[in-house]
Amino acid sequence: MKRFHVHVHVEDLAQSIAFYAKLFGASPTRQERDYAKWMLDDPRINFAISMRGGKPGVDHLGLQTDSEEELAALKRQAEAADLSLQDTGEASCCYARSDKYWIVDPQGIAWEQFHTLRDIPTFGGEAQPAAAACCPGDAPRGKSVPIAVKSAGSCC
Q1: Would 100 disulfide with which of 23, 47, 61, 114, CB 3.0-4.6 Å?
Q2: Right CATH for 3-154 from 3.30.450.20, 4.10.520.10, 3.10.180.10, 3.90.25.10
Q3: Regions in the chain scoring below 50 on pLDDT
Q4: What is the pTM of this model?
């Protein structure tokens, strides 16, 4: 089963955590000094906020799968539909290690398709080269490729 994913950049993490905890009726599943995440079952969503990256607002959307097989099926579906994608493979991001790829819609909204492998103790994870693809950068509007990526220091 898939879970919808939304990642939002915020200016004030404590204020945003208080707001979303009230909105969802639940405390974050994971909370760090610069990040919080709710893994909700009703609605089935992985909702994350962080103080990293660009201006406040929605950074990217996505679908999180429960298995590698589901991720492979989503990838086959995207390829069969002739959608351009950036396959980043296994990457460390947002306090997790995941297998993922990215698609950008015609408006420039990045969609992350991923399967989480394990939690990790730091936001960008293990040491990565600066060009390692963790999260999308500012993709040009109306262009589906290439997907610019941010450095590991400004990960999703």
Answers
A1: 114
A2: 3.10.180.10
A3: 127-133, 137-156
A4: 0.77
Q: For 53-63, how does the pLDDT look when each residue is reduced to its tens digit (9 = 90+)?
A: 778 999 999 99
Enumerate the domain spans of the chain.
3-154
CA gyration radius, the chain = 15
| pLDDT, tens digit, 9 for 90 and up, residues 79-97 | 999 998 898 888 887 788 8
Are 37 and 26 in contact, with CB atoms under 8 Å apart? no
